[in-house]
Amino acid sequence: MSSYIIEGGRKLEGEIEVSGSKNASLPILAATILNKGNTKLYNVPNIHDTKITQEILKYLGCKIKKNSDKIEINTKKVTKKEIPEHLMRQMRSTVILAGAILGRFNEVTFSYPGGCDIGSRPIDLHLAAFKFQKPSFLNSFSKLGVNISEDSGFITCKCDKIIGTNIDLDFPSVGATENIILASVYADGTTKITNAAMEPEIVDLAKCLNKMGAKIEGAGTNVIKITGVKKLNDVSYSVMPDRIEAGTLLCAVAITGGNVKLKNVIPEHINQILAKLEQIGCEIEIEKRNIYLKAPKKLKAVDIKTMPYPGFPTDMQSVFGAMLTIAKGNSIIIENIFENRFRYVNELKRMGAKVSVEGKIAILKGVRRLSGTTVESTDLRGGAALVIAGLAAKGTTIVRKIEYILRGYEGLDKKLNKLGAKIVVKEE
Ligand code: UD1
To answer: pTM of whole model > 0.90?
Structure first.
């Protein structure tokens, strides 16, 4: 386990570029399995989660070539239809590969996925969508026609042919929406998802698949239609910028009272984040794919409620939480997506934050300043929150278990150092 050693109290200033999106890269890497040829991907961030996904692709039989920021994936020789348990456990998004393998071979075996402990994170919606139900006149909501069996923790999904159907999701799950899209690309007929997730990463996945020759309409709205096609073609595709990394970098600058030009952002993807940053007193200007932020001397309190997109993203909740510990006044955060996403709060309290948590509600009473101490990452975004807190704290903050942070942020320490932070990595 490694640590970041952060010398707090330095104002961040300058310009920095956002990397490619983790949450778009993962389903797009999975989508390459569907194209029985060559896919060139650009702007895939070099982080733990994309590396694990590529490890699984190689295990399945994909040939992968890397060249500066290009990844070329050839899936012609893929024959394996199962995902090994030790790789499956590395992160939750491995479950997305199931939809792609099922879509290509009409069969897949996998175990329950792992990932950050931020709540129970079941996969019932994914499985319910795949599940076999005999079509009947009364049952217009028959699912994709897949037989699902479970044996010693391994789930096998199998069918002769995936049949397009109507799927009404109980909750707009990002992963389940992506899995249904991936499983339906070669289906017989049309699959219609209602109450689909509307996240920009789903639009990016659909754009990449459509460029390959798939027929997906409505991505970005809550009704998505996938009409099965017979074959896909080779493509080059550049993954969208990471909106959560963009938000994290803006918060890092804001908590230090600094200013920044953030490059390679799609501003409309982070509308909610920008609105909250304005409410806490930051001045923001948008110029095409650049965002300029100038922070006030003292941040103001604000209330936050996480919601599915286009609401405020749960992935930004902890980072805002860290900022609000030193804002003027009291803030309330309501976490509506994951029940276990306040674990970072106990670490912030060690730094002097005044926060009380009751179920899905946190009440933050702004203090004048945090004090540096040793804290431990609890999950990916919780770890990033501790880094943000450390940037503004008095003295030195040691953030342990940065492996969590490395899952999802490409060179966070280097980017912040470029803006004037002083973060050193200590290997343990
Ligand atoms: C994705 C993102 C993650 C983000 C989350 C919500 C990726 C790789 N990860 O995760 O960063 O925090 O969206 O925006 O894109 N649920 C069920 N049953 C299911 C599936 C989900 O109950 O079968 C619940 C979850 O427990 C959670 C909620 O639905 O409470 C949202 O989960 P979901 O949208 O599926 O998130 P992920 O796709 O896991």
So the answer is: yes
Secondary-structure percent of the chain, ordered helix, strand, coil, rounded to 5 = 35, 30, 40
Q: For residue 68, how far is its CA from the centre of ligand 1 (angstroms)?
A: 31
Ligand 1 binding site (Cβ under 6 Å of any ligand atom): 23, 26, 92-93, 119-126, 171, 173-176, 197, 201, 314-315, 337-338
Strand ranges inside 92-178, DSSP E: 107-111, 147-151, 154-158, 166-168
Q: Alpha-carbon distance 226 to 208, whole Å?
A: 14
> What amino acid is encoded at 92 in this protein?
R
Cβ neighbours of residue 70 under 8 Å, at least 6 residues apart? 40, 41, 42
In eight-state DSSP terms, residue 395 is S
- Total number of residues shown for the chain: 428
Contact (Cβ atoms closer than 8 angstroms) between residue 403 and residue 48: yes
Query: Is residue 190 within 8 Å of 216, Cβ to Cβ?
Result: no
Residue 122 CA to ligand 1 centre (angstroms): 9
* Structural contact between residues 228 and 234, judged by C-beta atoms closer than 8 angstroms: no
* Distance in Å, CA 174 to ligand 1 centroid: 6
**CA-closest candidate to residue 12, choices 229, 282, 343:** 282
Judge whether 229 and 213 are in contact, CB under 8 Å. yes
Tens digits of per-residue pLDDT, 276-292? Answer: 999 999 999 999 999 99
DSSP one-letter code for 239: P
Measured distance between the N- and C-terminal CA atoms of the chain, rounded to whole angstroms = 6
Rounded Cα distance between 194 and 168, Å, is 5
Positions marked active-site? 116
Q: Name the one residue in this structure whose structure tokens are 């001397």.
A: 297
Joined together, the tokens standing for residue 370 give: 């945090």
Residue 410 token pair = 């490409």
pLDDT tens digits, one per residue of 289-343: 999 999 999 999 999 999 999 999 999 999 999 999 999 999 999 999 998 899 9
**Alpha-carbon gap, residue 157 to 127, rounded angstroms:** 9
